[in-house]
Design a protein that fits this description.
2 helices; mainly alpha; 102 residues
């Protein structure tokens, strides 16, 4: 079996860190809420903030992985003597164009 691609390993590591951050935030916020005797609102706000950070981290990792995979494919095509096309960035309108108006 071959070793995982570098981008996949880095994405997995980022995911592990993000999960640890969310769990840590929940524990700290839960302890604070219990000490104050207040509502769970602070815990929920902290968890949502961590979720937003996690989403951004995962988006970045996915984009890096996509670009690295594109580089590998381009290099492989170059070795075969084919013309390598660079990875494309999806346009904002094309991703949302599925036959109806918003």
């Amino acid at each position: 079996m071959s070793a995982p691609a570098v981008g996949v390993f880095a994405g997995r590591r980022l995911l592990d860190y993000a999960i640890a951050g969310v769990v840590g935030q929940a524990i700290v916020a839960g302890g604070r809420a219990a000490l104050r005797g207040g509502s769970g609102r602070g815990l929920l706000v902290g968890a949502v903030a961590q979720g937003i950070r996690l989403g951004r981290t995962l988006e970045t990792a996915a984009e890096e992985t996509r670009l690295r995979a594109g580089d590998l494919v381009a290099e492989a095509r170059e070795r075969l003597g084919e013309e390598a096309t660079p990875p494309t960035t999806p346009s904002a309108g094309a991703a949302d164009d599925h036959g109806h108006v918003h």
